[in-house]
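Lecture notes, continued. The same structure-token format from the folding unit now serves as the input rather than the output. Read the line below as a description of shape only.
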């Protein structure tokens, strides 16, 4: 997902390295005062992490989560997608580091039993909640991924609420690899 506030102000969603959806009209919504950054679960309206429901929890795996303080170009997004193609369980050497403020590889060298190290510039190491590297590590798109159970006693990763992720009306990109555990239909652009 990218937002280029200096360009046309539209949000763009890419799936498998290709543009999937572009918002209609421009967005001037500020990304400020965000709740805690969670990976593997949704959090609405600053609700407590203790109240995550199964409908808010991922049942599947996540890998290579990145946050940029700029809008990546379509070419850069494709480069990230291609970097992991067919290379399961191998660490990524393509960091595409310009503007990279949050980067959780979930690879063994960047994990402890309770923490996912942030290899970006924000220093927002993330706590593993209801999970450990022994119980949740799986083969990912690029190296190791984490498996999430999609239940009310959900596993998730909590990166806190660093001011580095408070973009205001500035550009940003969120990038990740996700593999749902069960089949699901690809959403349409109207979903």
């Amino acid at each position: 997902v990218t937002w280029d506030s200096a360009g046309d102000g539209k949000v763009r969603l890419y799936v498998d390295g290709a543009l999937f959806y572009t918002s209609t009209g421009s967005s001037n919504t500020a990304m400020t005062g965000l709740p805690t950054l969670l990976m593997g679960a949704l959090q609405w309206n600053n609700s407590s992490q203790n109240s995550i429901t199964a409908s808010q929890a991922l049942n599947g795996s996540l890998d290579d989560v990145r946050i940029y303080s700029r809008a990546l170009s379509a070419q850069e997004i494709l480069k990230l997608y291609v970097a992991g193609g067919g290379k399961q369980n191998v660490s990524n050497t393509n960091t595409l580091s310009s503007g990279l403020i949050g980067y959780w590889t979930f690879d063994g060298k960047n994990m402890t039993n309770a923490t996912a190290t942030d290899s970006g510039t924000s220093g927002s190491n993330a706590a593993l909640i209801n999970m450990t590297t022994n119980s949740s590590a799986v083969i990912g798109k690029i190296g190791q991924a984490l498996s999430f159970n999609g239940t009310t006693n959900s596993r998730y990763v909590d990166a806190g609420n660093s001011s580095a992720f408070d973009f205001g009306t500035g550009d940003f990109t969120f990038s990740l690899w996700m593999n749902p555990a069960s089949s699901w239909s690809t959403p349409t652009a109207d979903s």
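Point for the exam: The chain has a mean pLDDT of 79.
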